[in-house]
Amino acid sequence: MKVHILLGPPGSGKGTQAKQLVEKFALSHLSTGDILRDAVSKGTEIGLRAKAIMAAGKLVDDDTVNGLVFARLQDETGAVLFDGYPRTLQQAEALAAFLSAQKIEMGLVADIEVPEEFLEARVVGRRSCSNNACGAIYHLENKPPRAENVCDLCGSPLKHRADDTSEAFRSRMEAFNATFKPLQAYYRGMANYRRVDGRSKPEEVFEAVVELYQENA
After folding, report:
1. What is the torsional sign of CA 145, 150, 156, 160?
2. In CATH, what is the architecture of 2-115+173-216?
3. Helix axis angle, 14-25 relative to 202-216, nearest 10°?
4. What is the pLDDT of residue 48?
5. Cα–Cα–Cα angle for 13, 16, 17, nearest 5°?
6. Catalytic residues
7. Model's pTM, two decimal places?
8. Where do the structural domains in the chain lie, given as residue ranges?
């Protein structure tokens, strides 16, 4: 069993790359959001604790997130890909200690790097289908719809999310960097850490990620 990690800032395409990697190599895709929702729906002890924290309007603390992730990892037998975890240095250190104790090998840590000016342009130009059942994503420059402001797939109007503005993006990046920079520095010291240029087309980024994954599978 191996655990692989995708790192990257908001708008880097990390989620898209994770989905394709999971499909290509039949990996277990673990995200903290999915794990959290599953634990809450099952009413587990740690899930109920997380539910109470969220009900109070607070962020779920690192110890609770780690507990959810480690419980889920113990149910896995094959290769696992984390997308969106770890988010903090404390989570990364706790994960390393858990993997060592369980004799689980750390595989690829791929960091999809995109300069902030590229990310801002991606986010501000992003449009999404207003039909939640469709959820198609477009970009005014890189992937425009065939008809202005209309989804190609279902014909619903496209929407511009309120947080997809320059001001909101810069605020998110400031908060993101406060926890991501120490996390990134931690993984950069590891032999299996690899940087990926995320400025290329998604298919080119995917080719690079696949090559790195195959080297560390």
Report:
1. positive
2. 3-Layer(aba) Sandwich (3.40)
3. 50
4. 86
5. 85
6. 14, 87, 126, 161, 172
7. 0.81
8. 2-115+173-216
